Amino acid sequence: MGLSAYLPRNTMQLRQLTAGIAALAAIASILSATSAQAFSFKVTDGVANPNTGATNQGAYSEFAKLKDTTTIDFNSGKAPTDGFAKYSFSNQGSSSVRSDMWAPVGPEGEKNTSNYLEVFQGDNVIINLAKNLNYFGIDWGAAHTGNTYAFYNGDKLVHSFNTKDIDQAGGFATYSALHPGSNEAGAQKQQNGKYYQGNGYVHFYADSKDDIFNKIVISQVGGGGFETDNHSFREGSGKFNFTTSVPEPGMVAGLMTVGGFLLYQRRRAKAA
User: Fold this and answer.
1) Residue 16, C-beta contacts closer than 8 angstroms, at least 6 positions apart
2) How does pLDDT run across 215-224, given as a tens digit for each residue?
3) What is the predicted pLDDT for the residue at 251?
4) pLDDT, the chain, mean
């Protein structure tokens, strides 16, 4: 499906989309100005299953229907071992595809009853890609300290991210009562002294041709697990432009909402 399928159909939609892209560009500039990273990420709510509208399967990428994008949702109960994205477990430990209460929540905090990928310490999951990518998105949660992603081009490390990076950029999209936790990076104190773990759709993307990647390593450093769902991969040989990859107008509104939240969090932290 070409990009034209996502273009607005009337003047009002065009105005909304233009305003949305302008707002996202402003937010991106502010966030980038405070970061030395060449390889970027952003957190959004994500969307319901873009093919069926199901809300009990976790959050999906707003860019899932862009041309040259492949999504692995683990709903079959397995991680693929051949094809475009090949998943392998480094030590064949207790990490697996499973379904339980720790599955990442949906875009509005809905309970996820589908299968997801769980990774524990000492058993990295390696994803080898058939082509170079400039974008990778995941439904991340329930977050723990030590959740780590490393992106490689061959054997060369391009960049790595962990839970602390998300916290420092403003936090996850939601902290779900479905995921009670402790006071650690990736959890936020709620009322009555309780802590809930972070959830959100996290978009990682290349800022230039030097940032493209073809291998991803998912690992957990320390206790707890690393829960993710609905991995989206986009082929590309150069920069992925987050603000002009043009999702549907309704999705732009969602991106603006979360972008505004991140900006608010950053200003509040700066004031403190």
Assistant:
1) 8, 249, 252, 253
2) 999 999 988 8
3) 52
4) 82
Distance CA(154)–CA(111), nearest Å, equals 37
**What's phi and psi for 51, nearest 5 deg?**
-95, -35
CA 48, CA 30: separation in Å to the nearest integer?
Answer: 28
Residue 269 β-bridge partners: none
Amino acid in the structure at residue 108: E
Sequential DSSP letters for 116-138:
EEEEETT--EEEEEEEEEEEEEE
What is the three-class DSSP state of 164? Answer: helix
DSSP state for residue 60 in the 8-state scheme: B
In this prediction the pTM is 0.78
Taking alpha carbons only, the member of 73, 109, 121, 101 closest to residue 198 is: 109
* For residue 19, cis peptide bond before it (omega within 30 degrees of 0): no
**Cα–Cα distance for residue pair 213/59, rounded to 1 Å:** 24
Buried b (16+ CB within 10 A) or exposed e, 188-206: beeeeeebbbbbbbbbbbb
227-266 b/e (C-beta count within 10 Å ≥ 16 → b): bbbbbbbbbbeebbebbebbbbbebbebbbebbebbbeeb
